[in-house]
Amino acid sequence: MRHTRILDLLNSTKTLQEVNVKGWVRTFRNNQFIALNDGSTIHNIQCVVDFENTADETLKRITTGAAVSVTGALVESQGAGQKYEVQVVKLEILGDSDAEKFPIQPKNKPSLDFLRENAHLRVRTNMFGAIMRVRSVLSYAVHSYFQEKGFVYVNTPIITGSDAEGAGEMFKVTALPFDNTPRTEDGNVNYKEDFFGKETNLTVSGQLEGETFAMALGQIYTFGPTFRAENSNTSRHLAEFWMIEPEVAFNDLTDNMDLAEDFIQYVIKYTIDKCPDDLKFLESRLLDEEKSKPQAERSEMALLEKLNFVLENNFKRVSYTEAIDILRDCPPNKKKKFNYIINEWGADLQSEHERYLVEKHFKCPVILFDYPANIKAFYMRLNEDGKTVRAMDILFPGIGEIVGGSQREERFDVLVEKMKALGIDEEELWWYLDTRRFGSAVHSGFGLGFERLVLFVTGMTNIRDVIPFPRTPMNAEF
Amino acid sequence: MRHTRILDLLNSTKTLQEVNVKGWVRTFRNNQFIALNDGSTIHNIQCVVDFENTADETLKRITTGAAVSVTGALVESQGAGQKYEVQVVKLEILGDSDAEKFPIQPKNKPSLDFLRENAHLRVRTNMFGAIMRVRSVLSYAVHSYFQEKGFVYVNTPIITGSDAEGAGEMFKVTALPFDNTPRTEDGNVNYKEDFFGKETNLTVSGQLEGETFAMALGQIYTFGPTFRAENSNTSRHLAEFWMIEPEVAFNDLTDNMDLAEDFIQYVIKYTIDKCPDDLKFLESRLLDEEKSKPQAERSEMALLEKLNFVLENNFKRVSYTEAIDILRDCPPNKKKKFNYIINEWGADLQSEHERYLVEKHFKCPVILFDYPANIKAFYMRLNEDGKTVRAMDILFPGIGEIVGGSQREERFDVLVEKMKALGIDEEELWWYLDTRRFGSAVHSGFGLGFERLVLFVTGMTNIRDVIPFPRTPMNAEF
């Protein structure tokens, strides 16, 4: 008979005479009670083995991590905490798991570091099962939001011949050998002999290509991997991460803020609705973790409270200029507690400043906008004041920057002048400039780092724990 | 006032006193009729300009490609072919488009080659607007299918330290310089000094990592970019393409075939339902294209007929051995019309053979299974006969192979022996082997090349026309 998923058995409306379940043993107690999990839910189903009529040889093989197939009746459970259990009639060991060797032993309480080194097995724990299910549902919420609104999903290129954006250090992509590398007459690497006939890199953003599609299809979004070859060994940075980049023709910066806020609230609400059990588990995990911290460092809100807070409160919209005024006069600045003291308008904000604004001053998500032109990218629209651009960053408690976006400079002449001033090659970006040459219009977009969103929703604190196989400096195992 | 999408105006249930539309001019006839498109639909809205009361200076700027904002009444159209039109009260040119310079002039009938070189603008044509909307809806159908069934979406790594799979030539990813490359004492490149401390490549498949997640979460799928550094300049190959790879614990090869067939039928049906107008346009485009072909080379079915045929007919399941018997005795083999004559069991099938089976013999999608072990990958499950493996390929008319999959070898000893025979490093794949060390079980999966699916559904014939910015040998523009 075909096996039934544990999720479906636990949601059954009635007992059943015969069912088959397949999964992995989480624990085996008293030579009798198997807690079996198949990944369909955080909950295990209890399978009660008739140990008196089961061969010792078989009982010994029911170890943590073993794959088993169990056939029997789905009956109401005598024990607390579960509605149903399976009374085992037939048990088959599908794959053994040597208890001495299986690295993921619940009783050992493996550290997050150890689990990262075993990223292929950590997903067999409750914690990572929950994280990865939540991540998956969040992904789908992203697609659902945009598709329901008629946005077109665009797969912008991963390998890019354009390195002009300056969003960060790039990885080189090449098929050339390091030995006997083809050279031009003057001794440079001859990229004409490389696979693409030119120098290519891994994309840092699909925005520029996305803009060209928005200027044809109206509303588009990307959702794909992006890369940074930056030696940032922090709990918030990955060398390979997934980014969501909507771009909308005819949207100005206010429309852009409205879109970002509505989008974030939608995907969080969607996930709360779809993943109540996983989020409940992650909430209690976070509470446990925080018990080891000093009172002052603990979150003021539990996980679900924090998520609901984001749904129920508008994001505070604050201009960069207002933010500088607040920061200049705030106690940590006056007492020189910040590493970077804010003295003047024009300073680039560091994460300590962002955290102060979000966590101490406003105590809610904040949208900062209208930044000084010279600390932002070339494609952002210059305001009438001639010194600020229509940029926006969304800052989240505990996460920092989760969104960066802007209204784009739609005026050909202004854009070209800016590129010249920054030494950006117009020839290289001929196709980008075409969007301003032919039928240009106001348009806006933003980028949201997906893993930062997953961090926020799961209450995890290290970004390496919310992506299946993290890539960071000196680490590309698997 | 806020502008309304053209799709919503054309679907309006009533006339409206005042509306605002923004979009790009497709054509401007008789100094009076603007065909305006905003990418929300293939249909243009006709905007009727009161030319007697509009400045000549403005009328001259209403050119193909220009972005305009139009305000006026939505009224019933006098002309044929449209329900509503806009009687323009106010017209604003948002962005000019110099008619002498704008490359996409409908009257010039630009070639597909020319449009590929202008991938950033081709999406402003009806054809590419339709293709990209259909592609987007197909993507969403993929996610919907798996999410509704409780599959977990897994983002397997793009940069991979594992090069053992042998699915194809890989691109190197590096942050090392070609000049003064760090070397070890014996003169080799010292990858310990590279960003990840080891040699890394762009992934050719997320399958192996996907398997580790399936063996924890039960049912997973990937949908992400994959890469081949192969010098294949054909209409069916890309260096960068998107792949869908579901993997399911406890599924055998029959379950795998059932899943693939059900999945393909679902996403095609979903797209037929959601994109009737775009598909109708693409169907007539294909008919036009085929008019220039000799009768014998034309499709027997129109596009929608072909899509419905796939929905209404089961895929024919044929073992490799049966296929060889058919091919050996078929007229083109006997008359030596094939480039590769089929003489013996064990021959690898070429696309000419696959096309014969699908297009001439069975005239429907075909699933070939149980291939000779030595022409398939190391991880496929060996049959009891000791010479075939539980592989399957799905072949589509006009496309060839669209799916490749298998039941995986779940037996540790058999897998290790196979790897040894092929010289695949066990150390390198320690984590993959762990899935067989700890709680192994029968499991299966497949990979579907997304662009080949888009080709099939849109009726396009060159794969470069169904991805926004194609990457092929000597081509990574944009």
UniProtKB/TrEMBL annotation, chains A, B:
Keyword hit for Ion transport: no
CDD domains: AsxRS_core (cd00776), EcAsnRS_like_N (cd04318)
Main location: cytoplasm
Pfam annotation, one family: tRNA-synt_2
Subcellular location per the Swiss-Prot or TrEMBL entry: Cytoplasm
The reaction(s) this protein catalyses: tRNA(Asn) + L-asparagine + ATP = L-asparaginyl-tRNA(Asn) + AMP + diphosphate + H(+)
Aminoacyl-transfer RNA synthetases class-II family profile domain span: 132-468
EC numbers: 6.1.1.22
Entry GO terms, CC: cytoplasm
GO terms assigned for molecular function: asparagine-tRNA ligase activity; ATP binding; nucleic acid binding
Keywords: Aminoacyl-tRNA synthetase, ATP-binding, Cytoplasm, Ligase, Nucleotide-binding, Protein biosynthesis
This protein's record includes keyword Protein biosynthesis: yes
EC class name: ligase
Family: Belongs to the class-II aminoacyl-tRNA synthetase family.
Protein name: Asparagine--tRNA ligase
The species this protein was found in: Flavobacterium psychrophilum (strain ATCC 49511 / DSM 21280 / CIP 103535 / JIP02/86)
Taxonomic placement: Bacteria, Pseudomonadati, Bacteroidota, Flavobacteriia, Flavobacteriales
